[in-house]
């Protein structure tokens, strides 16, 4: 980043500017609106031993000014994460801005639910919340500058580390794919077995009821002296 | 250790994910809206797929900050839409399941805004070797992950249909066996009831 006449900004200033730009980019994330008591759930289908980091930021709707307030202290969000078996992995209350992390121990659909339970919201009938949400899974959740600082890596080593993390995540996904294929095969086998046995069972029931009908009617008509 | 790394690590600098991919449940008769602030000139891509529910279709609409509809599709199962943001502001996209009366659907979408940020603050220090090889390997691995996501979504669809079929076969078989028994036994007793009333008339005919 060379300026006019070959003068270069000090490294710290460059980094500050870049960090500010990144923060602005962070503020431009995806967002949606929820009601005060509404619960919004998201599903993450992830393989085993995968880390998931979620960042969120909430803003409250101000009815008088008709604008979303930049930050509201005292506003709380409850985050609940359930694993594929329905067991609660994480259930915690965070502030208006927060970050939650969990690592999956079983592969499958994990459900992340967010809802606001701030008592202040009760004063504002029909209150609306704007929630900025950002969920990062697997190697996207790694903080590379921090890793570089901790392990003292050069740029090439850091790049190699990133590629290794990506490949590891691909490997985990492939293992999960194998598990899913087996589950699908079991379901199909079960359907196959059920169709087979129930067809046989119904044919047997049909034959037996037919025989019973004939015998019963025959004895009935004989009793009535019609046959 | 490079000074930039130490400084960035200290400040807990985190790279924003510019590819939010979200899977969520869309209840019947509902619409879900998402918003994103985009700078002009950014290349964006919206891709969505219905994973489970009903006929696996949904209405999708993407609007620019002035309300102009950039993309609108009714009852689509899967689509991929790329555009370049021409205006600065909040872009809205909405998934509607209002035509469905009782099936709630699970949907996946990913909305890519711009390019991935560089891993290092000063990319120009990287030599030609790392630039070409590591960036292109990174891009190739990203496309592998993308294909894996597609496979996973299709497999989820297949699994949900297989499970539906499995439960339907069970309920149908039990129901049919029950109906069979009831009808067979009922027929016999109904027939018996016909003959027990007209006993005198039939016996005269018979003799």
Overview of the molecule:
The complex is a heterodimer of chains A (227) and B (207). Chain A is an alpha+beta fold and 227 residues long. Chain A is 41% helix and 30% strand. Chain A has three helices and nine strands. In chain A, 22% of the residues are buried. Chain B has helices at 3-10, 128-197, 199-206, and strands at 21-26, 31-38, 43-52, 58-63, 69-76, 78-84, 89-96, 105-113. With 207 residues, chain B is α+β, with helices and mostly antiparallel strands. The longest helix of chain B has 70 residues, at 128-197. A four-stranded antiparallel β-sheet of chain B has the order 1-8-3-6. Chain B has a four-stranded antiparallel β-sheet with strand order 2-7-4-5, with no helix packed on it. Chain B has three helices and eight strands, in the order αββββββββαα. At the A-B interface, helix 1, strand 1, strand 2, strand 9 and helix 2 of A face helix 1, strand 1, strand 2, strand 8 and helix 2 of B. Strand 1 (30-35) of chain A pairs antiparallel with strand 2 (31-38) of chain B, so a sheet runs across the interface.
